[in-house]
């Protein structure tokens, strides 16, 4: 889409959501010009699925915006991710978290993370299964350079947004339950749920971070997820 349409789309979504909800612009395979237009229109957080592509973009835009990793993190990319990102939204195993922790120790950087929950139990999706969530949270609590700040979930991407509501709802319940436990180093303050077609339902169910791609930048020519 052109810069003007992108700008209009950002302004429309910002107008549509409560002030305490933050938009993460999901920018996978978008151009620098498209991302620049979104930032000019008021986007403050960029979400990227790929470490290397993100690095190129970070070199262009720098720290005028925050950078969230929203893709599937591989253990061999955690060192670079530790350098580049302000938050990792997709922790789903102690193996990857441990590698990330070592990368963060090396650079003395405390990394805020979210645990990704596979709330729909979709075999094709990443994320920890709901019944494994508490165990993972306890294990993360032992990693001193990882600071757990909340949960993220995808839910179904297409179809009726109402279909996603039960998944958002159960993720919020887990979020509230974990907020009440007193596991050291665990804080529940960020709930990342909702995409272009489902962000309104997600906000109704308690999301305070929404990840928006196609609503800002248009549909991909070929779906990449
Ligand atoms: C692409 C992507 C989004 C945005 O999806 P849209 O439907 O285009 O808004 C959100 N979250 C993740 C993890 C993504 O990969």
Helix-strand blueprint:
Blueprint: H1 3-16, E1 22-26, H2 32-40, E2 45-48, H3 51-61, E3 66-69, H4 78-84, E4 87-91, H5 94-106, E5 111-117, H6 133-141, E6 146-153, H7 165-180, E7 186-193, H8 199-204, E8 209-212, H9 214-217
Parallel strand pairs: 1-2, 1-8, 2-3, 3-4, 4-5, 5-6, 6-7
The structure holds pyridoxal-5'-phosphate (PLP).
The site of pyridoxal-5'-phosphate has 13 residues, from strand 8 and helix 9.
Can you walk through the features of this model?
- By secondary structure, this protein is an alpha/beta fold.
- The chain has helices spanning 3-16, 32-40, 51-61, 78-84, 94-106, 133-141, 165-180, 199-204, 214-217; strands at residues 22-26, 45-48, 66-69, 87-91, 111-117, 146-153, 186-193, 209-212.
- Strands 7-6-5-4-3-2-1-8 form an eight-stranded parallel beta sheet.
- Helix 1 packs across helix 2 (32-40).
- The longest helix is centred in the last third of the chain and has 16 residues, at 165-180.
- The structure holds pyridoxal-5'-phosphate.
- Residues 26, 28, 49, 70, 157, 195-196, 211-215, 225 line the site of pyridoxal-5'-phosphate.
- Pyridoxal-5'-phosphate (PLP) binds next to strand 8 and helix 9.
């Amino acid at each position: 889409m052109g810069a003007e349409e992108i700008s209009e789309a950002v302004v429309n979504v910002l107008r549509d959501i409560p002030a305490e909800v933050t938009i993460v612009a999901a920018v996978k395979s978008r151009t620098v010009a498209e991302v620049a237009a979104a930032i000019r229109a008021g986007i403050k957080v960029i979400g990227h699925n790929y470490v290397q592509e993100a690095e190129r973009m970070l070199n262009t835009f720098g720290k005028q915006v925050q950078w969230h990793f929203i893709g599937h993190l591989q253990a061999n990319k955690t060192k670079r991710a530790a350098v580049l990102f302000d938050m990792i939204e997709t922790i789903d195993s102690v193996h990857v978290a441990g590698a990330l922790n070592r990368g963060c120790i090396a650079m003395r950087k405390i990394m805020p993370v979210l645990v990704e929950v596979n709330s729909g139990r979709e075999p094709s999706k990443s994320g920890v299964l709901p019944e494994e969530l508490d165990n993972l949270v306890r294990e993360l609590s032992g990693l001193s350079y990882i600071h757990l700040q909340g949960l993220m979930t995808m839910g179904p991407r297409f179809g009726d947004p109402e279909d996603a509501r039960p998944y958002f709802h159960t993720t919020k319940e887990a979020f509230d339950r974990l907020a009440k436990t007193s596991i050291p180093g665990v804080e529940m303050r960020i709930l990342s749920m909702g995409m272009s077609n489902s962000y309104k339902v997600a906000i109704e169910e308690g999301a305070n971070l929404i990840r928006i791609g196609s609503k800002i930048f248009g549909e991909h020519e070929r779906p990449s997820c």
